[in-house]
Amino acid sequence: MKRQYLEFEKPIYELQQQLDKLKRQADKEKMDLSEEMEGITKKIRKTRSDIYKNLTPWQRIQIARHYAERPFMLDYVENAFEDYLELHGDRLVGDDNAMPAGFARLGKQRCVVIGHQKGRNTKDNLKRNFGSAHPEGYRKAMRVMRLAEKFGLPVITLIDTPGAFPGIGAEERNIAEAIAHNLREMALLKTPILSVVIGEGGSGGALGIGVADRIMMLDNAYYSVISPEGCAAILWKDGKRAAEAAEALKITAGDLNDLGVVDRVIEEPEGGAHVDPLAMALRLKEVLIEECRKLMALSTEDLLERRYQKFRAFGEFDQTTLDPSNQAEAQAASAGS
After folding, report:
1. Which residues pair with 15 in a beta bridge?
2. pLDDT of 335 strictly over 60
3. What pLDDT shows up at residue 321?
4. CA 20 to 30 Å from 259, out of 19, 122, 215, 272?
5. Residue 265 gets which letter from DSSP?
6. Signed CA dihedral, 200, 202, 204, 210: sign only
7. Which tens digit of pLDDT belongs to each residue from 137-169?
8. Cα–Cα distance between 109 and 332 in angstroms, integer?
9. So what's the pLDDT on residue 337?
Protein backbone atom coordinates (compact mmCIF):
# COMPACT_ATOMS: atom_id res chain seq x y z
CA MET A 1 0.00 0.00 0.00
CA LYS A 2 1.29 3.44 -0.94
CA ARG A 3 2.32 5.55 2.03
CA GLN A 4 0.31 8.66 2.78
CA TYR A 5 2.53 11.40 4.15
CA LEU A 6 1.48 14.11 6.58
CA GLU A 7 2.18 17.77 5.78
CA PHE A 8 5.23 18.05 8.04
CA GLU A 9 6.65 14.86 6.45
CA LYS A 10 6.95 16.59 3.06
CA PRO A 11 10.81 16.57 3.10
CA ILE A 12 10.71 12.78 3.59
CA TYR A 13 8.19 12.42 0.77
CA GLU A 14 10.33 14.46 -1.64
CA LEU A 15 13.41 12.34 -0.90
CA GLN A 16 11.37 9.17 -1.31
CA GLN A 17 10.21 10.42 -4.70
CA GLN A 18 13.85 10.91 -5.74
CA LEU A 19 14.71 7.40 -4.55
CA ASP A 20 11.79 5.84 -6.44
CA LYS A 21 12.79 7.74 -9.59
CA LEU A 22 16.36 6.42 -9.36
CA LYS A 23 15.07 2.87 -8.88
CA ARG A 24 12.91 3.14 -11.99
CA GLN A 25 15.81 4.59 -13.96
CA ALA A 26 18.15 1.82 -12.81
CA ASP A 27 15.64 -0.87 -13.79
CA LYS A 28 14.80 0.71 -17.13
CA GLU A 29 18.33 1.52 -18.30
CA LYS A 30 20.08 -1.38 -16.53
CA MET A 31 22.36 1.04 -14.70
CA ASP A 32 24.16 0.63 -11.38
CA LEU A 33 22.90 3.51 -9.26
CA SER A 34 23.30 1.75 -5.94
CA GLU A 35 25.68 4.38 -4.56
CA GLU A 36 23.30 7.24 -5.35
CA MET A 37 20.34 5.28 -3.94
CA GLU A 38 22.24 4.50 -0.74
CA GLY A 39 23.02 8.20 -0.32
CA ILE A 40 19.35 9.17 -0.62
CA THR A 41 18.32 6.33 1.72
CA LYS A 42 20.69 7.70 4.36
CA LYS A 43 19.22 11.19 3.85
CA ILE A 44 15.71 9.78 4.32
CA ARG A 45 16.72 8.11 7.59
CA LYS A 46 18.40 11.26 8.89
CA THR A 47 15.54 13.54 7.82
CA ARG A 48 12.96 11.26 9.47
CA SER A 49 15.04 11.11 12.65
CA ASP A 50 15.42 14.89 12.78
CA ILE A 51 11.69 15.48 12.23
CA TYR A 52 10.50 12.91 14.75
CA LYS A 53 12.91 14.01 17.46
CA ASN A 54 11.41 17.51 17.40
CA LEU A 55 7.68 16.97 16.98
CA THR A 56 5.32 19.70 18.19
CA PRO A 57 2.14 18.76 20.09
CA TRP A 58 0.07 19.58 16.99
CA GLN A 59 2.19 17.29 14.83
CA ARG A 60 1.72 14.46 17.34
CA ILE A 61 -2.03 15.02 17.16
CA GLN A 62 -1.85 14.76 13.37
CA ILE A 63 -0.09 11.40 13.76
CA ALA A 64 -2.70 10.23 16.28
CA ARG A 65 -5.36 11.09 13.68
CA HIS A 66 -3.58 9.41 10.78
CA TYR A 67 -6.71 7.35 10.10
CA ALA A 68 -5.54 6.02 6.76
CA GLU A 69 -2.58 4.11 8.23
CA ARG A 70 -2.39 4.24 12.03
CA PRO A 71 -3.21 0.89 13.70
CA PHE A 72 -6.64 0.71 15.32
CA MET A 73 -7.92 -1.28 18.27
CA LEU A 74 -8.71 -4.47 16.32
CA ASP A 75 -5.29 -4.35 14.63
CA TYR A 76 -3.69 -4.58 18.07
CA VAL A 77 -6.12 -7.30 19.09
CA GLU A 78 -5.06 -9.32 16.05
CA ASN A 79 -1.32 -8.88 16.56
CA ALA A 80 -0.90 -8.63 20.35
CA PHE A 81 -3.64 -10.95 21.62
CA GLU A 82 -4.78 -14.48 20.85
CA ASP A 83 -8.08 -16.38 20.95
CA TYR A 84 -10.17 -13.21 20.76
CA LEU A 85 -13.88 -13.93 21.16
CA GLU A 86 -16.05 -10.86 20.66
CA LEU A 87 -19.18 -10.39 22.77
CA HIS A 88 -22.11 -8.33 21.51
CA GLY A 89 -24.91 -6.25 23.00
CA ASP A 90 -25.61 -4.37 26.21
CA ARG A 91 -28.67 -6.52 27.10
CA LEU A 92 -30.76 -3.36 27.05
CA VAL A 93 -30.82 -1.63 23.65
CA GLY A 94 -28.45 -3.35 21.25
CA ASP A 95 -24.86 -3.65 20.07
CA ASP A 96 -22.36 -0.88 19.26
CA ASN A 97 -19.77 -1.55 16.58
CA ALA A 98 -17.75 1.47 17.72
CA MET A 99 -16.89 -0.41 20.96
CA PRO A 100 -15.76 -4.01 20.32
CA ALA A 101 -15.30 -6.08 23.49
CA GLY A 102 -14.60 -9.68 24.32
CA PHE A 103 -12.46 -12.38 25.87
CA ALA A 104 -8.85 -12.84 24.73
CA ARG A 105 -5.49 -14.18 25.80
CA LEU A 106 -2.44 -12.01 26.42
CA GLY A 107 0.54 -14.35 26.44
CA LYS A 108 -0.52 -16.97 29.00
CA GLN A 109 -2.98 -14.66 30.77
CA ARG A 110 -6.68 -14.82 29.97
CA CYS A 111 -8.25 -11.34 29.94
CA VAL A 112 -10.97 -9.19 28.46
CA VAL A 113 -10.11 -6.49 25.95
CA ILE A 114 -12.36 -3.51 25.18
CA GLY A 115 -11.75 -0.49 22.98
CA HIS A 116 -12.84 2.06 20.42
CA GLN A 117 -12.68 1.04 16.77
CA LYS A 118 -12.54 3.43 13.80
CA GLY A 119 -12.90 2.72 10.10
CA ARG A 120 -10.52 3.29 7.20
CA ASN A 121 -13.11 4.01 4.54
CA THR A 122 -16.59 5.52 4.35
CA LYS A 123 -18.44 2.20 4.64
CA ASP A 124 -16.40 1.03 7.62
CA ASN A 125 -16.59 4.43 9.31
CA LEU A 126 -20.37 4.39 9.07
CA LYS A 127 -20.35 0.96 10.67
CA ARG A 128 -17.96 2.06 13.43
CA ASN A 129 -19.45 5.56 13.78
CA PHE A 130 -15.96 7.06 13.38
CA GLY A 131 -14.94 5.55 16.73
CA SER A 132 -17.55 7.53 18.69
CA ALA A 133 -19.47 5.10 20.89
CA HIS A 134 -23.17 5.26 21.79
CA PRO A 135 -24.54 4.64 25.32
CA GLU A 136 -24.99 0.94 24.53
CA GLY A 137 -21.25 0.73 23.78
CA TYR A 138 -20.37 1.91 27.28
CA ARG A 139 -23.02 -0.34 28.83
CA LYS A 140 -21.68 -3.29 26.84
CA ALA A 141 -18.17 -2.43 28.05
CA MET A 142 -19.34 -2.50 31.67
CA ARG A 143 -21.18 -5.79 31.11
CA VAL A 144 -17.94 -7.36 29.85
CA MET A 145 -15.98 -5.83 32.75
CA ARG A 146 -18.42 -7.45 35.16
CA LEU A 147 -17.72 -10.80 33.52
CA ALA A 148 -13.99 -10.16 33.96
CA GLU A 149 -14.56 -9.43 37.65
CA LYS A 150 -16.64 -12.60 38.04
CA PHE A 151 -13.93 -14.81 36.53
CA GLY A 152 -10.94 -12.97 38.03
CA LEU A 153 -9.61 -11.71 34.69
CA PRO A 154 -7.77 -8.43 34.10
CA VAL A 155 -9.47 -5.76 31.99
CA ILE A 156 -7.50 -4.12 29.16
CA THR A 157 -8.97 -1.09 27.40
CA LEU A 158 -7.59 0.46 24.21
CA ILE A 159 -8.72 4.08 23.91
CA ASP A 160 -8.99 5.76 20.50
CA THR A 161 -11.91 8.13 20.09
CA PRO A 162 -12.51 11.79 19.26
CA GLY A 163 -15.29 11.62 21.89
CA ALA A 164 -18.55 9.88 22.71
CA PHE A 165 -21.27 10.27 20.08
CA PRO A 166 -23.07 13.62 20.66
CA GLY A 167 -26.17 12.89 18.57
CA ILE A 168 -29.79 13.27 19.66
CA GLY A 169 -30.30 9.50 19.85
CA ALA A 170 -27.35 9.13 22.21
CA GLU A 171 -28.72 11.91 24.40
CA GLU A 172 -32.16 10.27 24.43
CA ARG A 173 -30.59 7.00 25.58
CA ASN A 174 -28.62 8.90 28.26
CA ILE A 175 -24.98 8.89 27.13
CA ALA A 176 -23.94 11.03 30.10
CA GLU A 177 -25.40 8.56 32.59
CA ALA A 178 -23.79 5.62 30.82
CA ILE A 179 -20.33 7.21 31.03
CA ALA A 180 -20.85 8.41 34.62
CA HIS A 181 -21.96 4.91 35.62
CA ASN A 182 -18.77 3.45 34.12
CA LEU A 183 -16.60 5.95 35.98
CA ARG A 184 -18.08 4.91 39.31
CA GLU A 185 -18.16 1.19 38.64
CA MET A 186 -14.62 1.01 37.22
CA ALA A 187 -13.33 2.74 40.35
CA LEU A 188 -14.82 -0.12 42.38
CA LEU A 189 -14.16 -3.06 40.04
CA LYS A 190 -12.42 -5.88 41.93
CA THR A 191 -10.01 -6.86 39.18
CA PRO A 192 -6.97 -5.16 37.58
CA ILE A 193 -7.65 -2.57 34.87
CA LEU A 194 -5.07 -1.40 32.34
CA SER A 195 -5.83 1.38 29.85
CA VAL A 196 -3.76 2.43 26.85
CA VAL A 197 -4.46 5.51 24.73
CA ILE A 198 -3.41 4.28 21.29
CA GLY A 199 -4.52 7.35 19.30
CA GLU A 200 -7.11 9.93 20.25
CA GLY A 201 -8.26 10.21 23.85
CA GLY A 202 -11.19 12.58 23.56
CA SER A 203 -13.10 13.81 26.61
CA GLY A 204 -15.71 11.65 28.39
CA GLY A 205 -15.70 9.23 25.48
CA ALA A 206 -12.19 8.21 26.52
CA LEU A 207 -12.83 8.40 30.27
CA GLY A 208 -15.78 6.02 29.95
CA ILE A 209 -13.32 3.12 29.67
CA GLY A 210 -10.31 4.93 31.14
CA VAL A 211 -10.53 4.60 34.94
CA ALA A 212 -7.63 2.20 35.45
CA ASP A 213 -4.89 1.02 37.77
CA ARG A 214 -2.32 1.70 35.05
CA ILE A 215 -2.93 4.41 32.45
CA MET A 216 -0.53 4.34 29.53
CA MET A 217 -0.17 6.16 26.22
CA LEU A 218 1.66 5.64 22.97
CA ASP A 219 4.04 8.56 22.55
CA ASN A 220 2.17 9.95 19.53
CA ALA A 221 -1.27 9.78 21.18
CA TYR A 222 -3.12 12.55 22.98
CA TYR A 223 -5.59 12.65 25.90
CA SER A 224 -7.73 15.73 26.43
CA VAL A 225 -10.97 17.11 27.82
CA ILE A 226 -11.51 18.96 24.51
CA SER A 227 -10.08 18.91 21.00
CA PRO A 228 -7.53 21.61 20.14
CA GLU A 229 -9.94 22.94 17.50
CA GLY A 230 -12.74 23.18 20.08
CA CYS A 231 -10.46 24.85 22.60
CA ALA A 232 -9.28 27.42 20.03
CA ALA A 233 -12.86 28.15 18.98
CA ILE A 234 -13.86 28.82 22.60
CA LEU A 235 -10.81 30.82 23.69
CA TRP A 236 -10.06 32.80 20.55
CA LYS A 237 -13.14 32.29 18.35
CA ASP A 238 -10.76 30.89 15.77
CA GLY A 239 -10.42 27.15 15.16
CA LYS A 240 -7.36 27.82 13.00
CA ARG A 241 -5.37 28.43 16.18
CA ALA A 242 -5.63 24.72 17.03
CA ALA A 243 -1.84 24.26 17.00
CA GLU A 244 -1.51 27.01 19.62
CA ALA A 245 -4.24 25.40 21.72
CA ALA A 246 -2.55 22.00 21.46
CA GLU A 247 0.60 23.50 22.96
CA ALA A 248 -1.29 25.17 25.81
CA LEU A 249 -3.49 22.19 26.71
CA LYS A 250 -0.55 19.87 27.62
CA ILE A 251 -2.30 16.84 26.15
CA THR A 252 0.60 14.82 24.75
CA ALA A 253 1.97 11.69 26.39
CA GLY A 254 5.13 13.39 27.62
CA ASP A 255 3.28 16.29 29.24
CA LEU A 256 0.71 14.04 30.90
CA ASN A 257 3.42 11.74 32.17
CA ASP A 258 5.19 14.73 33.73
CA LEU A 259 1.91 15.79 35.37
CA GLY A 260 1.35 12.32 36.81
CA VAL A 261 -1.87 11.71 34.86
CA VAL A 262 -0.25 8.94 32.81
CA ASP A 263 1.81 6.19 34.40
CA ARG A 264 3.85 5.14 31.38
CA VAL A 265 4.64 6.27 27.85
CA ILE A 266 5.10 3.48 25.30
CA GLU A 267 7.59 4.35 22.60
CA GLU A 268 6.51 4.02 18.98
CA PRO A 269 8.78 3.07 16.07
CA GLU A 270 10.53 6.07 14.54
CA GLY A 271 8.05 7.60 12.13
CA GLY A 272 5.02 6.50 14.17
CA ALA A 273 3.15 3.26 14.86
CA HIS A 274 1.89 3.18 11.25
CA VAL A 275 5.44 2.72 9.91
CA ASP A 276 5.73 -0.72 11.56
CA PRO A 277 2.36 -1.80 13.03
CA LEU A 278 3.53 -5.31 13.88
CA ALA A 279 6.56 -4.08 15.85
CA MET A 280 4.27 -1.63 17.68
CA ALA A 281 1.80 -4.39 18.54
CA LEU A 282 4.56 -6.64 19.88
CA ARG A 283 5.94 -3.78 21.96
CA LEU A 284 2.48 -3.10 23.37
CA LYS A 285 2.06 -6.80 24.16
CA GLU A 286 5.37 -6.85 26.02
CA VAL A 287 4.40 -3.83 28.13
CA LEU A 288 0.91 -5.14 28.89
CA ILE A 289 2.23 -8.53 30.00
CA GLU A 290 4.73 -6.82 32.30
CA GLU A 291 2.19 -4.43 33.83
CA CYS A 292 -0.52 -7.07 34.08
CA ARG A 293 1.78 -9.42 35.98
CA LYS A 294 2.47 -6.73 38.58
CA LEU A 295 -1.20 -5.95 39.12
CA MET A 296 -2.29 -9.58 39.30
CA ALA A 297 0.16 -10.08 42.17
CA LEU A 298 -1.73 -7.57 44.35
CA SER A 299 -4.53 -8.47 46.73
CA THR A 300 -7.98 -7.05 45.96
CA GLU A 301 -7.73 -4.74 48.97
CA ASP A 302 -4.36 -3.35 47.89
CA LEU A 303 -5.53 -2.99 44.29
CA LEU A 304 -8.61 -0.94 45.24
CA GLU A 305 -6.71 1.20 47.75
CA ARG A 306 -3.98 2.03 45.24
CA ARG A 307 -6.57 2.88 42.60
CA TYR A 308 -8.39 5.15 45.07
CA GLN A 309 -5.20 6.95 46.09
CA LYS A 310 -4.10 7.29 42.46
CA PHE A 311 -7.19 9.23 41.42
CA ARG A 312 -7.37 11.21 44.67
CA ALA A 313 -3.88 12.53 43.91
CA PHE A 314 -4.86 13.98 40.52
CA GLY A 315 -4.71 17.75 40.48
CA GLU A 316 -2.62 18.10 43.63
CA PHE A 317 0.29 20.52 43.33
CA ASP A 318 2.80 22.01 45.73
CA GLN A 319 2.41 25.72 46.33
CA THR A 320 5.11 28.09 47.49
CA THR A 321 4.17 31.43 49.07
CA LEU A 322 6.64 34.25 48.52
CA ASP A 323 7.59 36.30 51.56
CA PRO A 324 6.45 39.97 51.52
CA SER A 325 9.83 41.30 50.41
CA ASN A 326 9.96 38.95 47.41
CA GLN A 327 6.38 39.81 46.49
CA ALA A 328 7.25 43.51 46.56
CA GLU A 329 10.24 42.89 44.32
CA ALA A 330 8.08 40.91 41.91
CA GLN A 331 5.46 43.67 41.80
CA ALA A 332 8.15 46.31 41.25
CA ALA A 333 9.67 44.31 38.41
CA SER A 334 6.23 43.84 36.87
CA ALA A 335 5.47 47.55 37.11
CA GLY A 336 8.83 48.43 35.58
CA SER A 337 8.22 46.17 32.59
Report:
1. none
2. no
3. 62
4. 272
5. E
6. positive
7. 999 999 999 999 999 999 999 999 999 999 999
8. 63
9. 45
Tell me the CA distances in angstroms from 239 to 40, 221, 228, 230, 322, one per residue in order: 38, 21, 8, 7, 38
Are β-strands 264-266 and 155-161 bridged in parallel, bridged antiparallel, or unpaired? unpaired
DSSP codes, 191-205: S-EEEEEEEEEEHHH
Summarize pLDDT for 281-321 with one digit per residue, the tens: 999 999 999 999 999 999 999 999 999 999 998 877 666 66
Domain boundaries, the chain: 62-312
* Cβ atoms 92, 118 nearer than 8 A: no
Could you give the residue ranges of the DSSP H alpha helices within the chain?
10-29, 34-53, 57-64, 73-80, 122-128, 135-151, 168-172, 175-188, 203-207, 228-236, 242-249, 253-259, 277-296, 300-312, 324-336
C-alpha separations of 147 from 129, 141, 174 in Å? 26, 10, 23
pLDDT at 271: 86
Q: At what angle do helices 135-151 and 175-188 cross, to 10 degrees?
A: 20
- How would DSSP label each residue in 6-38? -GGGHHHHHHHHHHHHHHHHHHHHT---HHHHH
Rounded CA gap, 61 and 254, in Å?
13
pLDDT classification of 14: cutoffs 50, 70, 90: confident
Say whether pLDDT at 330 is over 70: no
CA-to-CA dists, residue 241 to 51, 180, 305, angstroms: 22, 31, 42
Backbone φ, ψ for residue 299 (5° rounding): -75, 160
CATH domain 62-312 topology: 2-enoyl-CoA Hydratase; Chain A, domain 1 (3.90.226)
Distance CA 135, CA 267 (A): 32
As a whole number of Å, the CA-based R_g of the chain is 23
Q: Which amino acid is at 134?
A: H
Q: How many CA atoms lie within 13 A of 108 on its CB side?
A: 3
